[in-house]
């Protein structure tokens, strides 16, 4: 019996801890004895000022628990929730702070501003246990004093590279609010798409919102002004400010494809299909450019009540300005030193216009170049140098460096412990200068993240950033945070939110038994709490697939698909590893072309090691040949019957990694005199930005040969419209397979 009570007590404590695993962690939390039982009979007390909070909470209760709370006029009634606006001690007079008290008789929520009440409700939502028994729920007795350390806690969502639906954006507004974040930085114009309706310029969304590929595919979409009003109103109801970004003078291909007269050269242009930095930008010497921008911004400011308009300012090449008579005349007339000062002139002129409309500008840290606009807020992304410089000039800054805040980067580059270690205040700032740090944002650029992959990129990294910006713990204990994160995952599961790993999840150790002609693959799961399942038949792994417990033995060419699962839900995307047991396995390769040492140290043995390159050429398994063809000879050691030769190449057009124009295969008995047996071409458009491996294979009648030569022609040249025009083309080569 004692064991039973001990077990029951342990379960109760475990459940209590899970309920108190709040993210972001409150500034001060005191555990009290007892609990409060919330039922349909619980009453709610509020004033007319706090009616929106009561309505919001009741909507949540109805959806999650199936009941709403009726109102009471008595603020002292037992079994009630009391929502009050009043002066509160212990929250530093922070307008987003709150005091929450839960005891046996009531839930008391107090704040000096309605925002604080809203964030208190987010905490209460995390305290409500996840249970099937929804007629009544038990909340632990506790007292919380809580407030955010930073006023700018945001997400930058790029809806240009990939379009996001209106409902998707509203869902993310809810997810931001749940984590007590308060800014949606909405990236609305880009080289690859113009996403906002401008009534004076309807062609922007007829032409600029859609990009066309060589295979006839058309991709795009845009938000009507009614869509935007709906989203902004929805965000306001969640106390989230939507800050629009209208890019200028660079990242403007979609606009100048629509109105080429706004460029320096007059075009014509296509809406961008590739990622990167396009050289054609708005013409700074053309008055029509500023007329257009002011017209656009006049409509934008009517849609967004935000104090700020983000005007971009990043990655604006000066090539066209240097050769543009109008831009050079502008430099002369305005007594500017160079094109950098011309960009400063551009930004300052736009700032003056927006200031006249009661708005302030935010720009990426490039707006520092050539002189900073007087009232600009700087968003520092290229490290923290821009933030330091701007703050020392008494400008407000948003600190979101690539090192910690770019969530489009793979987990191998930016994992959750790294995000959690982030300090938005650079050490170089003194106490007064540090006051200019408004906060930070997670940046979700979507070149390689269409809508269905965004959640995998953001969670749980965004959750870690949310705690950094709200709680700003001086001493970071990642293990303690990770423990609370396990309970938070349950809540993400309840909301049907996908998420990925906290750290690089798998370590592969591969060996080959020559006597048995077998691959031996040992896989280590690096993150606790995850189970590994895999398949070898090409199907997607599920919890009904083989569960990994020991080494995987392969005695034939096989593709393994591996999935990590938490309970019954897959975490992150499926891993895929391919192995080849061909006649070229471990055979000597003589490279006639010289590879770069940047990839696999230029070691030719990786071309016949039987381990195929994956879906990222930067992760290993590929040899790189820049500005040169690929030519290699494989020695099969003895005359061997063959009927198929395959070589894998990678394509990432935006990064100047292209497939060959063609691959030609030769055979020889002596390694000196070679005979061509065929040439292979693959249809692929340079406008396609996909990252993928492509196999060039040749099938023949059975032949007998000892030596095989492969020649792959580097395309060398790229069209002038390509954002990386002038750069050197790479061939990325992986496994040579002979069957």
Automatic annotation (TrEMBL):
Top-level class of the enzyme under EC nomenclature: hydrolase
Database matches in Gene3D superfamilies: Chitobiase/beta-hexosaminidase domain 2-like (3.30.379.10), Galactose-binding domain-like (2.60.120.260), Glycosidases (3.20.20.80)
Entry GO terms, CC: membrane
Active-site residue list: 315 (proton donor)
GO terms classed as biological process: carbohydrate metabolic process; glycosaminoglycan metabolic process
UniProt family annotation: Belongs to the glycosyl hydrolase 20 family.
Full protein name: beta-N-acetylhexosaminidase
Organism whose genome encodes this protein: Ignavibacterium album
